[in-house]
Predict the structure of chorismate mutase.
Amino acid sequence: MNLKELQNDWINAFSQPMMIAGPCSAESESQMLETARRIKETNANVPIFRAGIWKPRTKPNGFEGVGVIGLNWLKKVKEEYGFKTATEVANAHHVFAALEADVDILWIGARSTVNPFTVQEIAMALRGTEKTILVKNPVNPDLALWIGALERLLGQGIKNLGVIHRGFSTYQKTKYRNNPNWQIALDFKSQFPNIPMLIDPSHICGNRIGLADITQEALNVGYQGAIIETHANPDEAWSDAAQQITPEILAELIGNLKMRNTDLAGFEGDMGRHRTLISDIDFQLIELLSQRMKISEKIGRLKKENDIAIFQPERWKVITEYAIQKAVETGMSKEFIEKVFKAIHEESIEVQNNIMINR
Ligand code: PEP
Ligand code: MN
């Protein structure tokens, strides 16, 4: 049996989009029960309640989760409100405790997926389980590592699998906490069409504003569900306060979602897919242009300090020749690339001119 042959019928027990909601971290019994009660009272279609029991935090000495006591609160959420429950496991001890407490869905966090030893330890502790195991993408955009984690789970006889796209971290500050990369997710989907894919807009956005758009974009490209951090009192949350939303806002978000036709032959589905990829590339183009302009500024300062003219015709010649050659190689028109590079070069000269004049 290999990953491609897995049927992954578990997702069919849920209507789509399959929503998982609940706080980043379990904090207290009352916070858990109030959050669960309010999600229930909205009547939004949320079958699964999440809460982090053990929290991987960037720095030491902060709140690292309540630990096993929180598993009792997840149990109460299940008993009182009928949710299935989900939590993150990051080592064998977490796995044994979560299985003992009958948590329904376990996920491997982004910081664990990067580490094959950790994934192997978790997989072995889970050996033969019927539970659904979701694997978040690793923090770095490495598709092979992500797939490797699933293979380690399958190697231990674990067949109910799914993945969560939570974005990729970069040193570069962007509008996202973790940049989404639809291409890598689509590459995954084309290789493993049967493995359900969920989106985690909370850890992608890092704020409350972009959540609905990211979730809808994911549905547009064929994702089957989302995991969204939801807290009774988001501003007071002990972790990830900026990105958590109230149950009522969650219900509104879910109400506005449109499940897309995922049939590739369907026009709408295709359009959504292409448009999302284009937005993704546009975003990267802008980021790259901004990096280019910042380097250009540095060159401007060097030129100023050394009394060198801004316009260096030989350099410009090399740049345009290279760009034209690349354009032809990649099947684009020479005229188009000339136009684009002329605009970039003009802006670069403008930026350097400002440096020469103003400082
Ligand atoms: C989380 O879901 O709370 C979490 C820690 O996410 P990630 O592993 O994506 O950082
Ligand atoms: Mn979180």
Residues 271-357 form a domain with the Chorismate Mutase Domain, subunit A fold (CATH 1.20.59.10). The mean pLDDT is 93.
